[in-house]
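Follow-up to my post from last week.
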Amino acid sequence: MKDQGVLRIVTKWMIPFIMVFGFYVVTHGELGPGGGFQGGVILGSAFILYALVFGADHADKVVPRRVLDVTASLGVLIYAGVGTYCMLAGRAFLDYGAIAPLDPAGAESWGMTLVEYGVGITVAAVMIICFNEVARSGGRVARSNPIPDVQEMERLGHDFPPRPPSSIIPPKTS
Amino acid sequence: MSQRVVAMPDTLPLDLFLLFLILIVAFAVVVTRNLMAMAALLAIYSLLMSLVWANMWAMDVAFTEAAVGAGISTILVIGALVTTGVREKARNQVHWPALIVVLITGTALMYGTIDMPLFGDPTAPIHSHVVPEYMAQDVGKVEGGPILTGKPHRLPPGAIFETGNLPPEHSHDEDGHHDAVHQSQTKPAHVNHGDFSHHAPNLVTPMLASYRGYDTMFETAVIFTAGISVILLLRASRKEEEEEADVNASGQGGGE
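User reply:
Got it. Predicted complex:
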């Protein structure tokens, strides 16, 4: 698909806008529809679009696999880290009032923002990981475990379902 | 049960039309044997469901359904089709036990919704327990709201809030936010900071991130676990094959 000029140029122009929009949805989750999950999916889809048009090898050079693995864990760490910080500051787990004890509403806002960032990061990384693994293993898993196509086998005259190897049942002459 | 208000939503024809389309698409997904067409039909199903959510004013859910269902799910299904092939084998008979179980379960679910409050009912538990607290903190500070203009807000149907008119008891006191709400019962208004820095106009995000923070954390962990499972299942086989390819290449090179 890299040889298609229109696809290539339009994709290169669209991807920054998709990423900005995804980041906008994550950060403005409290002000409008959106939040961590939606924004993370949009961010992930920007990289998936790059992998679709330019190939999985190029996409691997842009975002290596190790970076994705670390990023996915980092999001969960941020979320649980906020909760643990609230616990270490003397209050309950994920009690956002501990972030700024004198200003409960602002602390809630800060806590929710940090937590949504964590969610967005994890969701984006996991979407890209899932697509990469499914795209790269396409065909390889099938070659090692072929699933027989029934109509093809019947058309070619093979035994389907396979008969048990026994001398009592005569072999089927096709 | 309180007296039931006859609530015929204005969007009933649109709801019925979307339901009709969804039934057709769902039936087609099950019946079709060309799996590429099935992937496209699944994307269409997600689009119709996001329209249904948008019709119910559930914008966050519609957003998520459109992004995940019509976007990511479709591309992953097509990626899976590369592995399995695009024709499904012919099934000429109906699996009667499965059909009976599904019909019984569906009927039981529909029978269970009879006891639920009507859509938009102001006396429903969700509209009288937690939502008024959060609405009083969030919605009052929007332009045209009672705090900035001093005039009573034109309430959307189903909302029963005014700033300062909160339910007297608080069942839990774990948040600092609840303390601020409790204090505001004696003081007239919240402090107006002039920006969005201390409240969240979108009511869904505080529900997800603060009231249901534990659930969202474990959802994130579940998504992370799904990513790990995909890595474990699909990446290991690729490493083995690369090692096999290396062994074959070195064997051929050594043989010559």
